[in-house]
Amino acid sequence: MNRRCSILAAAAMTFVVTGCTVGPNYHKPDAPTAPAFKEDAVVSPPNPPNGGWKHAQPGDDKLRGKWWEVYGDPELSRLEETIAVSNQTLKAQYAQYQRAVDTVREYRANYYPTLSIDPSAARTKLSPHQPNFNQGIETQQYNNFIAAGQAEWEPDLWGSVRRTVESARATAQATAADLANVDLSLHSELAMDYFEMRGLDTQQQLLQTTVAEYQRYLDLTNIRFKGGVATESDVALAQTQLDQTRAQLIDVGVARAQYEHAIATLTGVPASSFSLPAAPLILTLPDIPVGVPSELLERRPDVAAAERRADAANAQIGVAIAAFYPTISLNGSGGFQSTNAGTLFQGPSSLWSLGGSATELLFDAGRRRAITDEAKASYESQVATYRQTVLQAFQDVEDQLAALRILDQESMTQDLAVRDAQHSLDLSTRQYKEGLTTYLTVITAQATELANQRTAADITTRQFSSSVQLVKALGGGWDTTQLPKHP
């Protein structure tokens, strides 16, 4: 009989300590995927000759943390390195992550009992005029020394605390993924601003060269006019063409200044004290390893954040269900009390008490049921958000693969257009010098050549911007193994 009672007592204590965990266990939601990227499978051309992306091969290196180094631009790399230590947006997001980590620690503390002590010492004098005063008391003054403590514990019988910690842990991981996503966005935004600025530097250099060339044409026309070969109208046309091109050169400076200011803000430097010398965009477009679609779900921090929030929402269902079960509280106190400090910690001075209570809510007009349904709806919402984020991730990659493929074809065609325009200008100039055509033909050929050259420069800039956006769409070298494993 005693053995049976011991077994039952041990089983009861085990249940009190461990309890059970109500609510559904989390399983990662399924998400739409594809066996291959459609644009990556395009075989015509099989690989852009000017770079842009490359097909996945066994053993291919993936994007790494400092992905901007693939462009081989020391100035870009230097600027990118300053974001982590200077950008205030990134610092604010890091503080949000630290807050989420502290929340996990806060909820984990609910696993354990709370302990407190309240030592006290008092000197008391009794009034002989108080009601029911006992005249037989030997002394009307006495000391009262107490050294006692209390313990309170609400065992997690139904897993409410466990589910709360689970939700907080998943939220902290989602916040860590948010931090990685902000970091990726800032680095990619800096790279795009940098390449846009360098593209404008290319246009500035082109326009400066064109201005010098048009000045020579103006000088030639003036000479021909003085010699009676050209007309005053030819001189006016040449002057107009030169002034118009100078205006274009000045106008490019407006956009360049704005990109330079944007770079300053991203690197944490006041725009008023930041400047970068002009340098044309003459880099070689690098290959970007694309990988396979199944890896994309593990490489995108925004996808990981959405998935972790689905986990957190699922855990909240368990928290809501646990509210249907009774709340058990255990408490105890103990210590020493004596009128003499010298005998305070002796055995006869000891005192203690143990107790417990249980509370079960009988009627709440459907409040707990509504909270549970709300938690389930929130979970379904997070699952839908996760799946939509996955779809958006595939769209982002396909968009940039298509952009790089089409821009490569456009670049090759535009190079032909530039050569044709240059040939047309050479012919028009020669015919004008020979008196076979008017200067208007030369002006038209000049304008056509400049427009095609600027278009070619713009396509190059767009190729670099698309390559950066492809890196961002692929996660920039991040993966879910970098999510923190919070206790």
Q: What is the number of E strands? A: 5
Q: What is the CATH homology-level superfamily? A: Outer membrane efflux proteins (OEP)
Report the mean per-residue pLDDT as an integer: 87
- Rg calculated over all Cα atoms: 38 Å
H/E element sequence: HHHEEEHHHHEEHH
Strand content is: 5-15%
Major beta-sheet overview? 5 strands, antiparallel
Structure description:
The structure is a single chain. This protein has one domain: Outer membrane efflux proteins (OEP) (Up-down Bundle), CATH 1.20.1600. The chain is of the alpha+beta class. Strands 1, 2, 3, 4 and 5 form a five-stranded antiparallel sheet that branches. Helix 3 runs antiparallel to helix 4 and helix 4 packs antiparallel against helix 7. About 6% of the residues have low confidence. The two termini are 42 Å apart. The chain is built from nine helices and five strands; from the N terminus they run αααβββααααββαα. Helix content is 58%, strand content 9%.
Quick gist of this model?
By secondary structure, this protein is an alpha+beta fold.
Topology summary:
Blueprint: H1 2-18, H2 74-86, H3 88-108, E1 114-117, E2 120-125, E3 141-153, H4 160-226, H5 232-266, H6 293-299, H7 301-322, E4 327-338, E5 350-359, H8 367-433, H9 439-473
Antiparallel strand pairs: 1-3, 2-3, 3-4, 4-5
Helix pairs in contact: 2-4, 3-4, 4-5, 4-7, 4-9, 5-9, 7-8, 8-9
